[in-house]
Amino acid sequence: MSVRQARIPAVEPRERWGTRIGLILAMAGNAVGLGNFLRFPVQAAENGGGAFMIPYFVSLILLGIPLMWVEWSIGRYGGVRGHGSTPGMLDAMWRRPIAKYLGALGIFMPFVVMVYYTYVESWSLGYAVLSITGALSEPQGIQEMTGFLQGYQGVTAGTDGVFGNIDFGAFVFPTLGYGFFLVTLAANLYFLYRGIRGGIEKVALYALPALFLFAAIIAVRVLLLGTPDPGQPENSVLNGLAFIWNPNLTALGDPAVWLAAAGQIFFTLSLGMGSIHCYASYLREKDDVALSGLSTAATNETAEVVLGGTIAIPAAVAFFGVAATTQLAAGGSFNLGFVTLPVIFQQIPAGSLFGALWFFLLFIAGITSSLAMGQVVVAFLEDEFSMSRGRAVAWLGIVLFACTQPVVLFVEHGYMDELDFWAGTFGLFVFGAIEIIIFSWIFGIARGWREINLGADIRPPEVFRFVLRWVTPAVMIVIFVFWTIQNAPGVARMEGVEAASRPFVLGARLFMLAALAALLVMIRVAWRRHGTREGGRRR
Amino acid sequence: MTLAGWLMLGVAWCGILALTAWCLARVLTGDGLEGPDEAAERVPPTA
User: Fold this and answer.
1) Could you identify which of A78, A278, A431, A537 might form a hypothetical disulfide with A376, taking C-beta atoms 3.0 to 4.6 angstroms apart as the criterion?
2) How many CB atoms lie within 10 A of CB A356?
3) What's the pTM value of the predicted model, to 2 decimals?
């Protein structure tokens, strides 16, 4: 392998995962997020109910599992060559200068998403604590609970003094919410500082079983709700399950349903993000990726379909009925989780306890995902700039803290929504399409298939070789094009954005452009310093 | 809930739970990553 520059000092071995189950739980923690419990049931209910599961499972087989194997393989391939982030990985697979710059997306997206995700994650922590203290039991009904959420976020000044908000005129400083944000940020940075084995893996080993336990307890409680108001027999858990599962087979003829299913699979598995690659980079050359990747996907699906589908929507239908739940769901997944469910928990015995479990569950789902995002940036600084872990985490913390301030202060102006659209949604499709084309067509399906099978504990069926070469890239491109046509023009033109919020939306775009430009410059600097190399990072 | 709804729910739940159980059983009974760190044995970069 050629090396463009000879100035390469001695290497030190990269960190490794301690246990395989720890790795799989960490990968599953990366994938299991708020979307499993909030986005999936809404998508299913809006797109044909049980019929949605047909395109959902087709997408899992043709898109989700193959891409999962691809990302694990790319990650391990890059990690063996000393790269924990996608610029180095793609550069190792495709020896063209542009490859490393395309890989910048695999750092840009996790970083930008982490900028707002950490804040959202902190809401879950805050609400878990407020459930325990009883503060969440005070607002009565959907309207008051919406006001409570807005007070917590600093959208309104909040009049009851619970939040300690400070009104500066131009913005409201959400004192309590900010405190929980600082705690959340500090927890993320601490676990990242502890490293792969001592931090991320340890968190996953305890947090993921806790997450599944909490979700199972809440799901059983929801199933036992039955018909809370005998005077309204149509409002029942059974009708809630029917809302999600009764198949409307005519929906299968609607391309939008197939697009929604493919999109859901893509988001739920955290594909196209760069974080799976990063975690897989801490594998050894002949560690299995086939069984591990499949296990990650299966574990995520258990959280999503079995548990996620049994909590929010069935509970909402049991208390508010199908028509009202449809309206509440149309208000967004966050409203379902942070407004509707707290109101429901108020109405059941030991509701504060279940509320605390629910929000702590969301917090665990959040932190195990944000750690994966943060690790991408830390790995980039460690591997490409030879930084110590402590220094890399410190830099991440400083930059993240600075970049999160507009998210916290201008949440009502759509700053966060803009980041979520371009980096958390659009960017994933772009990078997913790029990586599958590089893997199957440039790196080559023969080498790619060998990589997937190297050290494999299961033999992926040969048909997936065909799927990876033809079907997955085609599906990925079709989704990308149709999704972009459907969504991007309206967002790009700021349709529906109030005039007062437009400067903030524009600010979010400028921030993203600046972040991407800074990353491209950093990649250029790093490669000028060390050139293309293999086999571990410098001391 | 209709019979078709129960069928969809049953197939989805059973399929996913069976796949997850099979995968995790294979993982837990197979070779772990435990053991001596082999990273040092890997070939250093050529300069």
Assistant:
1) A278
2) 21
3) 0.92
